[in-house]
Amino acid sequence: MKTDFCxxxxxxxxxxxxxxxxxxxxxxxxxxxxxxxxxxxxxSAALYSELSAESTALALSKxxxxxxLSPPEGFSQYPLHxxxxxxxxxxxxxxxHIQSNAAKLENPVTxxxxxxxxxxxxxxxxxxxxxxxxxxxDAFRIDVGALVQGFRAMVKHNGGAVQxxxxxxxxxxxxxxxxxxxxxxxxxxxxxxxxxxxSWGDVIATLAGVPPLGLTPFRRNIIIFDGPENTDVxxxxxxxxxxxxxxxxxxxxxxxxxxxxxxxxxxxxxxxxEYDIALAAHNIESVTTLEIKHIHHKWGGLRTFAxxxxxxxxxxxxxxxxxWFVGQGGFGMxxxxxxxxxxxxxxxxxxxxxxxxxxxxxxxVLSPIRF
Length: 371
What we know:
This protein has 371 residues and is α+β, with helices and mostly antiparallel strands. It has two domains: 2-75 and 143-213 and 308-370, FAD/NAD(P)-binding domain, CATH 3.50.50; 85-138 and 216-305, D-Amino Acid Oxidase, subunit A, domain 2 (D-Amino Acid Oxidase, Chain A, domain 2, 2-Layer Sandwich), CATH 3.30.9. Helix content is 27%, strand content 29%. The protein has ten helices and 20 strands. The protein has helices at 12-21, 55-69, 95-102, 113-119, 144-157, 201-207, 274-286, 332-347, 354-358, 363-366; strands at residues 2-8, 27-30, 47-48, 81-83, 86-91, 109-111, 130-136, 140-142, 161-163, 168-174, 177-182, 187-195, 216-225, 238-241, 247-251, 254-258, 263-264, 295-305, 312-315, 322-326. The strands form three sheets. Strands 5, 6, 7, 13, 14, 15, 16, 17 and 18 form a nine-stranded mixed beta sheet that branches. Strands 1, 2, 9, 10, 11, 12, 19 and 20 form an eight-stranded mixed beta sheet that branches. A three-stranded antiparallel beta sheet has the order 3-8-4, covered by helices on one side. A hairpin with a 6-residue loop joins strand 19 (312-315) and strand 20. Helix 1 packs parallel to helix 5, helix 1 runs parallel beside helix 8 and helix 2 crosses helix 8. The protein is globular, with a radius of gyration of 21 Å. The two termini are 34 Å apart. The relative contact order is 0.19.
């Protein structure tokens, strides 16, 4: 099989950049698992929050927001966003974080103890407990399935292909470009390779003889548990520590939560460990009156960071035609529309639009050469 771009990785990174590339070039997406978005992309809490993002991730989140709120006609039969208020909480020694983060919002709303209890009556407040909150009214949940399938459908509509059960076992540079040999005996010949393999990004680079970037996967663990007895939690806001010690939010009549942990990991099919699950329950119990007696479901996912914890998008200076698109670091869903557009333009060797440059997102900022 021959194509212009061979995109390795069928998560949100690979599918979104393939969707953009397919507007102007032929594309094949290779996913080694039996279905797309099997690993991190399919295990995301998918809460759009600008307060949780910094630097390039924040700029790309803002640039992607219009797409998530109003996607192109025909992209998905379902809305990509579900509104939810997000409240960031602070204890006495964390008040400075409330103040500094409020500066990120156009119309910041801060809450005192009484107002916090009106919003979330199960909070432990006063003393060593929570004493203030910062409201992000424009936060929302992202429909992961709709977003992922929308990009996949765009690839196919534009004549591209998405292949699952397509593990790449070798990548060889030749006079025409690259040859990706697959475990099933097939091969894909392309002019360019896009490394969108997430936690396996450095593994793919090594296969191609390209120096790794030093990507670090971190495992995050999530639990599903009951809210207070005889209480409808479906309209509750999302609650999160301003310093990143916990979050929880409604999920299908129950609550979904995490200690927002970052446990270094090798690239793998991440599974939750008992200590991490216990920590998630403990951190949530410590700031609420909840007793988490039963965990209905638990899972782990990998969030992968570049050394500076910002997105990488650009050609490798050591290997012609080898393009990096990695390091989403947990912000892949909320930045996808903008990061994929920027990355595709760079892969096509075109200039970024003025709104990207004005937001501080440039080819130099994204380039792997910065390392």
